[in-house]
Amino acid sequence: MALAVAAAFPAYAGRDLTMLSLEQLMNLKVVGASKYEQKQSEVAAAVSIITRDDIRAFGWRTLDQALASLPGIHTTYDRQYSSLGARGFGLPGDYNTRVLVTINGNRSNEAVYDSGVTGREFPLDLDLIERIEFIPGPGSAVYGQNAMFGVVNVITRKGAGVDGVELAGAWQNPQAMGEGRASFGKLLDNGTDVLFSVSGMRAKGENHFFNFGAAGVSGVAAGMDGERTQQFFGRVAHGSWAVELVDGYRRKDDPAASYLSDPLVARQYQSDRYTLAQARYEQSFSDNTLQLQARLFAGSERYRSSLSYGTEFSFPSTSEWRGGELRFLYTALAHHKLMVGLDLQDNTRIEQQILDLANSSNDRVIARSVARTGLYVQDEWPIADSLTATLGLRLDRTTTTDTAASPRVGMIWQAAPATTLKALYGRAHRAPSAFERDYSDESSQVENATLKGERIDTLELVTDHRVGTDMNLRGSVYQWTIHDLISLGIDPVTELPQYQSSGTVKAKGVELSAEKTWTSGARVRGSLSLQRARSAQGTVLVNSPQLLGKLGFSLPLPVARLRVGYELQYDSARRTANGTDTRAYSLSNLNLSTDKWVKGLELGLGIRNLFDKRYAHPRADGNWQNAIAQDGRSVRLQATYKF
User: Fold this and answer.
1) Which of 3, 275, 343, 344 is most buried as measured by Cβ atoms within 10 A of its Cβ?
2) Quick one: which of 581, 631, 542 has its CA closest to 89?
3) pLDDT of residue 513 exceeding 60
């Protein structure tokens, strides 16, 4: 965070962010909401920021662990993939299609499933993250596809912040997990900023007992929970230019026999490789009244699997895309901050395969290409000294759907120096993914060539109130409605599962949060979220907790010069696919760290699920189990040496 602090607060350059007051932390700039820098009070959303120091204080190792600390967020893990739920919506097996995940503004949602990954499959090591911006609510007015329940913008560290070599290693039990990382970063004498990093993880996993229900099988999946990752990140920036490359591979063994594959068969797995690249150019003209940002990007995602159905089958998919974006920000007009942008994405390869490794005559390839064009405009307009309007509109066109319009209206009233009120409306949309529209194996799913997109309308009122310089209170009341929700139904012709437009889903909710800092470096943040999501028929949504509670604090200990980070998370019961409910649960996580013992050396001890709670998450349609048991207590030791 050193560069962000240096830019915003020169007097604090090089100091630990935990020593900054809450007022100073709240003034850190947000770029993910409108694609240009804004103060949090200027953003037309209830935005939250997770800093690098938060990640270190609490010992988070995956993106979803960090996001789970925020109001209204719940996570689901099926022992293959982790998915994110927001504001009461988190259908198991939906592949995170309704949340947009970006890395330095570069879209990471791939083109087959449209998934925005947040678990171990996320291709970037968390140690390389400077901060995470979460902008809840619809973001399609700026970003288009997928930004229905929020935008997660991950901002990476820069070479100047690393300023040397970092070597890191960790060990975690009972998963027998080993991790390692080597990073080099530097601001060179010629002004070029460079950062290169490689990291990897390998775990044996745990042995788990599973009841495979309708399969009539139960037993211990011994040695079937292994996992490994390989990650690379490179960034070179000079002047107005920056070039970045992210490459991440993850393979996860499958102990739960996903997609109704044969139970307790060894060597079943699923893997993903993400490669994301972008080149960015930023320049200002006319006394900084005109800002230009241009970027070119390309990406690919390769999914591989080996699943048993009497004999071995593989279901590989490949997506490749490329495109560009051009954005202008104009501030010369009196009382207006006008942004106009155009982005193009050509999904040049969208390929899904069904491979019968015992009989190649049964193989099938489903291939297509899709192009997407988006034109957007936004205006920040100070109507009065204390009242600002944010007006936005984006039009998106793909080769498979009609033009979709995504409007955005925000009214921000500075009612008092310490109080801000925001009234927000937004619409977001999502075209069906290639998997939902085109996949067919004539047994578990058939295609739906006429499947249309879905949209969400959201109304929200947000109040922020500052108490002194060290405490902030926030309240948010919202309602959202999804129209033409895409979900699994039954094809009336073949009587097989098929993705269809299934009607309307509505929700109302309240989010209350508080955050306080002390001059000693202590910080506490807590939230309570009440949410009620129902179908048009009034039924409770699957995997939708009605109550979420979060509490996290970090503080320096006078003993042994340690810092302690503790978080408590409560999730109420969730409805499962068969109509029963999982049990409510509360989890405690503890992390101790220090960088005071040896110069350049940082040590950490983390204990997740401190009290070894037994709990489960609802399963998706492709699982034998009604609910998937989660991990018990784990202990992690970490060391990072910088020179």
Assistant:
1) 343
2) 542
3) yes
66: its two tokens: 């960090």
Instruction: Give the number of other CB atoms < 10 A from CB of residue 535.
Output: 17
pLDDT of res. 12: 37
Structure tokens at 63: 């993106």
Q: What angle do CA 461, 464, 468 make, to 5 degrees?
A: 165
The C-alpha angle with vertex 214 and arms to 208 and 216, in degrees rounded to 5, equals 65
* Residues 6+ positions from 621 with CB-CB distance below 8 Å: 92, 93, 488, 497, 577
In the block, tokens 């390929």 appear at 351
Q: Is the peptide bond before 174 cis (omega within 30 degrees of 0)?
A: yes
Query: Beta strands 100-103 and 150-156: pairing type?
Result: parallel
CA dist list (Å): 2 to 6, 51, 52, 240, 553? 6, 11, 10, 20, 22
SS3 484: coil
- At 8, the pLDDT band (50, 70, 90 cuts) reads very low
| Amino acid letter for position 69 | S
Position 27 scores a pLDDT of: 66
Burial label, 567 (beta-carbon count in 10 A; 0-12, 13-18, 19+): buried
- CB atoms under 10 Å from CB of 189, counted, come to 6
Q: Which residues, in sequence order, are bridge partners of residue 327?
A: 293, 341
Per-residue pLDDT of 190-229, as tens digits, reads 999 999 999 999 999 999 999 998 899 999 999 999 999 9
Q: Residue 15 pLDDT > 50, yes or no?
A: no
Helix (H) or strand (E) holding 496: none
Please state the pTM of the whole predicted model. Answer: 0.94
Residues found in the chain: 643
Residue with tokens 């910088």: 642
- Which residues is 602 bridged to in the sheet? 640
Distance CA 316, CA 331 (A): 48
Q: What is the pLDDT of residues 374-416, one digit of tens each?
A: 999 999 999 999 999 999 999 999 988 888 999 999 999 999 9
Q: Which two tokens stand for residue 536?
A: 């048009």
For residue 144, what are the contacts with CB-CB under 8 A and spacing of at least 6?
343, 372, 374, 376, 394, 396, 406, 429
- Tell me the residue type at 175: Q
Which of 633, 542, 608 minimizes the C-alpha distance to 69? 608
* Torsion on CA atoms 31, 409, 405, 94, rounded to nearest 10: 60
Cα gap 130→124, rounded to integer Å: 12
Nearest by Cα to 115 from 370, 392, 301:
301
310, burial (CB in 10 Å: exposed 0-12, middle 13-18, buried 19+): exposed
User: Helices (H) and strands (E) in the chain — how many of each?
Assistant: 7, 36
Q: What is the mean pLDDT of residues 273-292?
A: 96
Phi, psi of 2, rounded to the nearest 5 degrees: -60, -40
Residue 108's alpha-carbon distances to 5, 299, 568, in angstroms, are: 27, 8, 30
Largest CA distance in the chain: 73
The CA distance from 516 to 469, in Å, is 9
| DSSP conformation class of 421 | E
The answer for residues whose C-beta is within 8 angstroms of residue 280's C-beta and 6 or more apart is 104, 105, 241, 242, 243, 244, 293, 294, 295
Give the torsion sign (CA, 434, 265, 263, 174): negative
| φ, ψ of residue 402 in degrees (nearest 5) | -75, 170
